Structure formats: C-alpha cells, structure tokens
Amino acid sequence: MHESTMNWHELQQRIQRCTKCTEEDLKGTRCPDVRVPTTEPRNVKLLFVSEAPPLNTHSYFYYEHAPDRLRHRLFGILGEMGYEISSIKDFTDAGFYLLPTVKCPSMSEGRNAAPRGSVIKLCAEHHLKRELEYIRPDSICLLGRTALLGFLWLRTLWDVPEQDVQEVGRTVSEAAGKVLTVRILDKDITVIPSYWPTRRHRRFHEIRDHIRIAMDKIHY
Questions:
Q1: Is residue 199 over pLDDT 80?
Q2: Which of 15, 78, 159, 160 could form a disulfide with 83 if both were Cys (CB 3.0 to 4.6 A apart)?
C-alpha cells in the first residue's frame, strides 16, 4: 500500500514492525518498539515533538496507567497556562498531540541515552515525516535537541516559504523561541523550537512562553 493512502492505524503498524536501525546496524537502539500513540490525532492545533520513548517499556507518554515524567511535566506546564488537563483525553480534546521524533529507545551502557544523529535522520525520514504529513497540525513545538535535529533534516525535504529568512541555529539554545515556518504538503505551519522539559534546566520557565507563542500564531 502506498504511504499516501495509509490511514493512521496503518502508519502506526508500520512503525511497530520497523527494524531499519537493526538492518542498517545502527548501534545503541532497541529496535523494534511496539509503543505508539493510543489515540488517533484529529484537528490538532499544537503538536509537541519529543525525543524518544524511555528505555523502561512500562513507561510512555500515552500509557496513563504508568507514570511518565514527560507527561507529568508537560501537563503541569499547560496547567500553569490555564488548561485543565489531567488525562490524555483532556490533552487531545484541547487540540494538543505529541509524537516522539525517534520511535525506539536509545541506550548507552544499559541506560537511557539521546539518539544518535544517524538514528534521528533515519527515523524522521521514514516515520515522523509521514506522521506530520498525515496530521498537518496548525503549529508545532519542538521539545529538545532530538526534535530540533529531526526538524532540521525534514526541513530540507519540505518547502520553506521565502519569508522565513531566519537562521534556525544548530543548537537548542540558538533556536529556542524562534518563529519558523515550514510548508507541509499544501499547508504553512508555524514551528517553535523549545527546551526539553526538565526542571533542572535553567530555562525551564521559557517553555511556557514558547508554547504561548505557538498558540498565538494559530489562526482560528
């Protein structure tokens, strides 16, 4: 079946069966991974793009029966902004959604590790690109380095409107808070890079401001 005719369920099945990292001998990944979003995206106003699933297979953003630090922190930030979100249903009903850039966890010496550049490029091109083209959200917020690197790669595959003349930057500190635009198929979408939501980060408080910028750019 051609990718353009795939529905959401079929796209997620492809991800669950994917062994490309293993086939290309990319070290440090546990591939495949069966964790995919438990609900289909509909009318997404703001899409968060995160890093990768945690190494602990019992934890995942969409597994509400298990604790997940990313879900806890992101719901907390949105709560500070006035959104009453305590469940995935609340999250999606408010027009939010989240996807990991890399679909399988990465590890180093048995511990969680940031995905390598080769893994980010492979997974973004084969999976995240198709998901974004399916969802076509109104706006995107990139959470952290992996999401930024995935976006920088995908940006070379999509049209970038001429008015977007800002240099993105290669690091999160350079790119955070910039208002970017990318054309996904026939839709111009605002993209805001931000930081990974850990309270240890000295600029954690700025994530809320970046989300607000992304929401303000949405045309209702």
A1: no
A2: 78
